[in-house]
Design brief:
- There is one protein chain.
- This protein has 46 helices and four strands.
- With 899 residues, it is mostly helical.
- A two-stranded antiparallel sheet has the order 1-2. It has a two-stranded antiparallel sheet with strand order 3-4.
């Protein structure tokens, strides 16, 4: 570096490099300018100056100087290396790799460049190149531990586990017998555990167990040692020894469910489906009774038997489990019992049991069969549990009466208000649920969880602005809304996006959904720093696990929701593009002068309001961005706060396809992925891709109403197409003709016959009947009246399935109402359906049920009005108004509080 410079300037060049490494950028710039005064065309100095400017956020100057430096000295590995570093800082990894390779052509043995290249190859999953680079590093510096480990990990990632084992054994051969010293015991133990996990992964189980026992003294992490040992014993079929080890592990942690599962495997009493014979249930019961005597304080040993016990034995075990938790007052008890509701018959047993407990506490003050009196709070938590139970079973009126009784018993318990808000949300009164959640929030302003739950309820009720104000109470001072983005608060962004989508504000909805996608991009980028850190710290098992997690990152539920939301926005944008200025002018010209005047006044008021809100936000951000030293930290202003630029895309379906591909690659088991694929490709006239989506839907769930809709719509479209003319069209036609017999649903039937067969098969299901009616109308619009009749004749299914009555779901009834009003376009039928559903869902605001907050006479209307009109104010018992603080952390309100 700086070899072509005189000694004085060469030393200055070394100072530039040192200043860059120690982040003393101004000092580095000064040294660079000193050299460039005498040697203005020195390529390496120009490049280093550019790299320094890049760290000072002067990117355009940086790129200009680095390119000039490279132009002046094309044969300098430093210039190419710096150019690669510049690209790497902008996440242009492929370009950076090209620059590093050019640098290595000039200096093939440069360890720094090879190390940087290997990090980028790991990041981009260029695994063959990663192996090659790590091998070269090991050849150049074999006395460095990190090079051995890096070469082994590279081979492991490249699906060559046996080679990785050989490398680790060769590395161990270079060590002395007394290795490691005390300060490296943890790192060496981690390396040994990684090697044993590799042997297990490659199927060398005997070798792995032998190696584990041989190196026991050198492994520091004894818990992982035991877990690895028992895993190997079970895989080798040594179940008796494995059972003993699992019992040892349970002594260390008797609440670890995995240990109980492992012990059941060793006893031959494990089933993935959870189905057991009566003999197996008896043996399991005996096993857990013996364990309960040994670990009487363990919660898991009492909870697990509830999953396999039946009838009277289940009732007794549930009674023993529930009683102490009700006495303690555990709010999460229902969440713990919730999975049992999927087991046939257990929900009825739990209902009878809890009602019996409630009755006994009311009449005798204690549990049945016990003389001891229970504290008053036991009745409170029993009523709360019953309310959640009836909520789960869809009996909202009983649930609300129970929770109201609990609140009247002790009005100061916050959890009760949260439970009631949840019940109202399920019943369909989202506005009242939000009001109750806000009441719970005001009772404890320091509780982040209750604050977040309140925000979620408000977003469900489409109160986005109010939700934003509540959400930022727990963010840092300054640019608060951006803090939610910086904190990667994805649940908030998803709920906001869904709310904006329901309100047809596609710009803001897209902005929220794409913000979530940006978080996943950041998470992918965040792995970069760990490629060198994990090899240095020897956390190899965690490192490999992290890389595998990163490879399936986009299959996460939050990404799936965000991508699906973005695709729905683009589809809606394609179907109803925003009005152009010319269209708006045409509409204005058709209005009367008085109407024009009113419209202009309305627009001016909206603009003034938006401007004022922006100014207030700017003032708050400016006031909050002042540090202790008095300096202002200027944050970049969002140039598109309402997402208007996101709507200005030439081809919305092309944008949708980007996210669709990610969904298809990472969530192929999700029905929604293929439904969206069908919708996008039908609009793009991509017939074969739409057909592929139909096949996937039928493969995943042929009986699903949406799968049936897509099947009928697709072949109805194909049958109505003109005869193929071009070679491509003829090829598509031949493929469809060849594939058609493979679909069992068709079976040489007409589409009408397929639709009729679908109804016969699912005649008791509301959504299946709605799908039949819609497709009947699609196939023959003249049968609209018959289609509406099919929907209206649907009766509530009273047949008992798994001993629980099948009920209509609110979401399904809303979908049917929209079908009648917007697809079948019969407003009278939609009105009749609304009246019918208002009786069935009396708390639903959508159907304007008699008990909902949408009705002026309803009690919940008063709750909603109070919350809406008296925001930040609460009524005391004496009837006087008491200010409730609307922001967290301000103690002025509590100055006059007396205890």
């Amino acid at each position: 570096m700086g070899a072509s410079l005189p000694p004085k300037e060469a030393n200055l060049f070394k100072l530039i490099v040192k200043s860059y490494e120690t982040k003393q950028y101004k000092k580095g710039l000064k040294a660079a300018d000193s050299i460039l005064k005498k040697f203005p065309d020195h390529g390496e100095t120009l490049s280093m100056k550019g790299l320094t400017l890049n760290c000072m956020d002067r990117k355009s100057e940086a790129y200009e100087l680095v390119r000039l430096g490279l132009k002046n000295d094309l044969k300098s590995h430093v210039c190419w290396h710096v150019y690669g570093l510049l690209y790497r800082s902008d996440r242009e990894y492929r370009e950076a790799i090209k620059c590093y390779r050019n640098a290595l052509r000039i200096d093939p043995d440069n360890i720094e460049i090879l190390r940087d290249l290997s990090l980028l190859q790991a990041q981009m999953r260029d695994l063959s190149g990663f192996v090659e680079t790590r091998q070269q590093l090991l050849t150049l510096k074999p006395n460095h531990r990190m090079n051995w480990i890096g070469f082994a990990v590279a081979n492991h990632l490249n699906s060559n586990g046996s080679k990785a084992i050989e490398i680790l054994e060769a590395y161990e051969g270079t060590l002395e017998d007394d290795y490691p010293p005390d300060n490296e015991r943890c790192e060496h133990g981690e390396m040994l555990l990684y090697k044993i996990s590799l042997l297990e992964e490659c199927g060398f189980l005997d070798r792995a167990l032998e190696e584990l026992q041989k190196k026991e003294s050198k492994i520091v992490d004894k818990l992982t040692y035991k877990e690895q040992q028992v895993s190997l014993l079970v895989k080798l079929g040594q179940l008796e020894e494995g059972g003993k080890l699992y019992r040892d592990l349970l002594r260390m942690n008797p609440d670890n469910y995995r240990y109980y599962e492992g012990l059941q495997k060793c006893e031959g009493l494990y089933s993935k489906t959870g189905q057991y014979s009566s003999d197996e249930i008896d043996r399991l019961e005996a096993l857990y009774k013996s364990l309960e005597q040994e670990y009487s304080w363990s919660s898991a040993v009492k909870r697990i038997p509830l999953d396999f016990l039946k009838d009277e034995k289940f009732r007794e075990a549930a009674d023993d489990y529930i009683r102490p938790l009700l006495t303690k007052g555990v709010p999460s008890l229902f969440s713990d019992l919730s999975p049992l509701y999927d087991h046939p018959g257990k929900a009825d047993i739990l209902e009878r049991l809890i009602l019996e407990l409630e009755n006994s506490i009311r009449t005798t003050g204690g549990y049945p069969g016990r003389a001891e009196k229970e504290p008053p709070s036991t009745l409170l938590w029993t009523m709360s549990l019953l309310a959640q139970h009836f909520d789960r079973r869809g009996q909202y009126e009983i649930a609300l009466s129970k929770i109201d009784e609990a609140i009247e018993h002790t009005p100061t318990v916050i959890d009760l208000y949260s439970v009631k808000a949840r019940i109202l949300k399920h019943a369909g009164d989202l506005a009242a649920a939000a009001a109750l959640a806000d009441e719970a929030r005001c009772m404890d302003l320091a509780d982040r969880y209750i604050n977040s739950e309140c925000v979620k309820r408000m977003l469900h009720a489409d109160q986005v602005e109010l939700a934003e104000k509540v959400a930022v109470l727990f963010t840092k001072d300054g640019d608060q809304h951006n803090n939610l983005h910086d904190m990667q608060c994805m649940w908030y962004e998803l709920a906001s996006g869904e709310s904006y989508f329901r309100q047809s504000d596609l710009g803001r909805a897209l902005k929220k959904f794409l913000a979530v996608e940006k978080h996943y991009l950041d998470i992918t980028e965040d792995q970069f720093d760990f490629h060198s850190y994990c090899l240095r710290k020897m956390t190899l098992r965690s490192y490999v696990e992290m890389l595998k997690f990163q490879d399936r990152l986009h299959s996460h539920a939050y990404f799936r929701k965000a991508a699906a939301g973005a695709i729905r926005c683009y589809i809606k944008l394609q179907d109803t593009p925003p009005k152009t200025t010319a269209d708006q002018d045409d509409e204005m010209s058709k209005l009367l002068p008085s109407q024009k005047k009113k419209l202009r006044q309305k627009q001016r008021k909206a603009e003034a309001r938006a401007k004022k809100e922006a100014e207030v936000k700017n003032e708050e951000a400016t006031a909050g961005n002042v540090s202790k030293s008095g300096k202002r930290h200027v944050k970049p202003v969002d140039p598109d706060p309402h997402g208007e630029k996101l709507l200005q895309v030439e081809d919305p379906l092309l944008e949708a396809t980007k996210y669709l591909k990610l969904l298809q690659q990472n969530s192929p088991e999700s029905l929604e992925s293929h439904l969206l694929s069908f919708e996008v490709n039908m609009r793009k006239q991509k017939i074969l891709l739409a057909f592929q989506a139909v096949k996937q839907l039928l493969k995943l769930d042929a009986g699903n109403p949406d799968s049936h809709r897509c099947l009928i719509r697709f072949f109805h479209k194909v049958d109505s197409m003109d005869a193929p003319m071009s070679d491509n069209e003829k090829l598509i036609w031949r493929v469809l003709e060849a594939e058609r017999p493979t679909i069992s649903q068709l079976d040489e039937k007409s589409l009408v016959e397929i639709n009729n067969h679908f109804l016969e098969k699912h005649e008791d299901s509301l959504m299946h009947r709605a799908a039949f009616a819609e497709m009947l109308y699609v196939l023959d619009p003249s049968k609209k009246a018959e289609a509406i009749k099919i929907v209206e004749e649907t009766t509530i299914n009273t047949v008992s399935i798994n001993e629980t009555t099948e009920r209509w779901k609110l979401k399904d009834c809303m979908a049917v109402h929209k079908l009648l009003g917007t697809v079948l376009i019969d407003h009278n039928a939609a009105s009749r359906w609304k009246v019918r559903c208002a009786d069935y869902f009396p708390y639903s605001t959508y159907f304007e049920g008699s008990q909902s907050s949408a009705m002026p006479s309803s009690a919940y209307n008063q709750i909603y009005k109070n919350n809406e009109n008296v925001s930040g104010e609460k009524r005391s018992e004496s009837g006087q108004s008491v200010d409730v603080p609307s922001s967290n952390g301000k103690l002025e309100v509590f100055k006059e509080l007396k205890i």
